[in-house]
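Weekly structure sync, notes
Attendees: PL (lead), two postdocs, one rotation student
Agenda item 3: pending single-chain targets
PL asked that the sequence for the first pending target be pasted directly into the notes so everyone works from the same version. It is reproduced below exactly as submitted, 120 residues in total.
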Amino acid sequence: MIEATGIDHIVLHVSDVEQAKKFYTDVLGMTVYRENERQAFLHAGPQGVALFKKQGDAPLMTGNDLNHLALKVATGTYETLKGELEKHGVAVTGRPGEDRCIYFRDPDGHRLQLMFSRDA
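Predicted structure, written out during the meeting:
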């Protein structure tokens, strides 16, 4: 039997790899570990997010196969995390006071969520 021990990376199709990479590195603090003109692989802690240039002329249809990507953060409250995102021009939805309901979208419309452990 195969025993999966974690997720190496997920792939998000994006319209502009450079724009998406800038969002994920500048706003979310991820680091690039491999890239070329059509893709960028980023570390988010021990996991990875890969940004692939979409193929063809069809528009991106976010939300059909992937509802959202939840990202762990070390510290923060709804208000501090919301403020940090808004500083970068990112609109935030969710419920104030509920640290597991901080939702926002990347430049291509992928729905993202920030979460942190209450034990930390």
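Discussion points:
- The radius of gyration is 15 Å.
- The helical segments are 17-27, 78-87.
Action: rotation student to compare against the earlier draft before next sync.
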